[in-house]
Amino acid sequence: MKVVVLFGPPGAGKGTQASFLASRLGAKHVSTGGLLREQIASKSPLGCRIKALVEAGSLVDDATLFEALAATVAELSVESDSILVLDGVPRTESQVSLLEASLSARSLHVDKVLYISAPVQKLVARFVKRWACKGCGTVFAFDTAQAAESAACATCGAKSSMFRRADDAPETVERRFRVYEEETLPVIAIYRARDLLVEIDGLESPEHVYARVVSEVFLK
């Protein structure tokens, strides 16, 4: 099994590429949020612990998060042609060694780290144009608020259903970038020093980025 870690600042398209790898190549996509939701849905003792933390409004600590990751990895088939895509893990320097321990229990290691990068100012501009449909959740880009508010959803047909997510508000976007730079850029530096990091231009079209991602995944 190949283990691929995806990095990218908010809005760079990391989630889109992870979805492509899962749907087109059958990769196992593990995101932090998805990992915790899966454990909660399983109603296992670990899942019940996570649910209690979430419902109490507490952050899930690293030890619990990586216990959940270890449980997920333990269930995976590790055939040589399978792919595990990690999205959102590791997020901090301290999580790098925790990830290594979780993977080594199955004789796995990080094979490739793909950093989908883009200038911050370009990404902020993307967020300004980003609107979502209340009916189906599909995300669209509109140049003005007036255009968004008058548009019908091209996916479900709902009218006057466009709204701007709280995560996409300018002040929230700025905070997300600050957190990303403070926590994640040092992790990228670690993998760059280990010669595992490949940087990919996130401003290209999603299909062009995907072509590059796939070529790197299968490059020995």
Q: Keyphrases for this structure?
A:
alpha/beta, five-stranded parallel sheet, globular, about 220 residues, 8 strands, three-stranded antiparallel sheet, about 15% strand, Rossmann fold
Structural class by SSE content: alpha/beta
Number of helices: 10
Low-confidence stretches: none
Strand content: 15-25%
CATH class: Alpha Beta
Tell how many strands the DSSP assignment holds.
8
CATH homology-level superfamily: P-loop containing nucleotide triphosphate hydrolases
**Outline, from the CA principal axes?**
globular
Instruction: Sketch the major β-sheet.
Output: 5 strands, parallel
Sum this structure up briefly.
The protein is of the alpha/beta class. The chain has helices at residues 14-25, 32-42, 45-55, 62-74, 93-104, 120-128, 145-150, 170-183, 185-193, 206-217, and strands spanning 2-7, 28-31, 83-87, 112-117, 130-133, 139-141, 162-163, 197-201. The strands form 2 sheets. A 5-stranded parallel sheet has the order 2-3-1-4-8. Strands 6-5-7 form a 3-stranded antiparallel sheet.
Q: What does this 3D model show about the protein?
A:
The chain is α/β, with parallel strands linked by helices and 220 residues long. It has a single domain (2-217), classed as 3-Layer(aba) Sandwich (Rossmann fold), CATH 3.40.50. 50% of the residues lie in helices and 16% in strands. It contains ten helices and eight strands. The chain has helices at 14-25, 32-42, 45-55, 62-74, 93-104, 120-128, 145-150, 170-183, 185-193, 206-217; strands at 2-7, 28-31, 83-87, 112-117, 130-133, 139-141, 162-163, 197-201. Strands 2-3-1-4-8 form a five-stranded parallel sheet. Strands 6-5-7 form a three-stranded antiparallel sheet. A hairpin with a 5-residue loop joins strand 5 (130-133) and strand 6. It is globular, with a radius of gyration of 18 Å.
